[in-house]
Amino acid sequence: MPTVLSTKKLTEKQKELLQNAGVSLVEYNAINIDFVSFKVPSIIENAIFTSQNAVNALFKNECHPERSRRVFGNCFCVGEKTKALLEENGIKVIKMTEYASKLADYLVKNHKNDSFHFFCGNIRSDEIPSRLKENNITFKEIEVYKTTLNPTKFERQFDAVLFFSPSGVRSYCEERSNLTDNKAIFVCIGTTTASEAKRYTENVVVSNATTVESVIAKTVKTLKI
């Protein structure tokens, strides 16, 4: 039976997808997320979210969805689940893309004269900020959570390791002994995460969609179970 390591603790339904495919699972959180205090401006015409963590941090801060419906105008986000979480809390999503680079392209092309508030963590991709700066688009970053690495040493081998962020890759690879198993496949949730993984190994595959379920499906298919 193949064994995989998930660098994020999975839900019971997600675990069942692996179990039903005959895969043994080891899991841990390669990164820790901590919400921080922040102030939300009274009026936000255009908001950017690139992760569910930022959305969750916002609503913990805001306390009640009614507050956010009053404060927010349009919203732009990365990822289907981020979009769903925003809409569940009453925020209208104008545009969703699978990757930050695609959202940056859209904003530059369609909203060059608008201003934005970008809700993010302390470790975030530079894709959107750099593109907005290059095109003189006004934006303000609001840090709503902090990401810290949780490097953990594993003395066993895995057939595949599942990654869900570049930070997760860095955390796992910080303990160099993790890399003694050169045959392990690094299964990544998207191209940005995969780019980080390729710094450590050539044995990298990318899920078809930026969801945990897609990472699991790609793992099962890659292991040819």
Automatic annotation (TrEMBL):
Coiled coil: none
GO BP: uroporphyrinogen III biosynthetic process
Residue ranges of the TM segments: none
Cellular component per GO, a single term: cytosol
GO MF term (any one): uroporphyrinogen-III synthase activity
InterPro entries, alphabetized: 4pyrrol_syn_uPrphyn_synt_sf, 4pyrrol_synth_uPrphyn_synth, UROS/Hem4
Name recorded for this polypeptide: Uroporphyrinogen-III synthase
Provenance organism: Aequorivita soesokkakensis
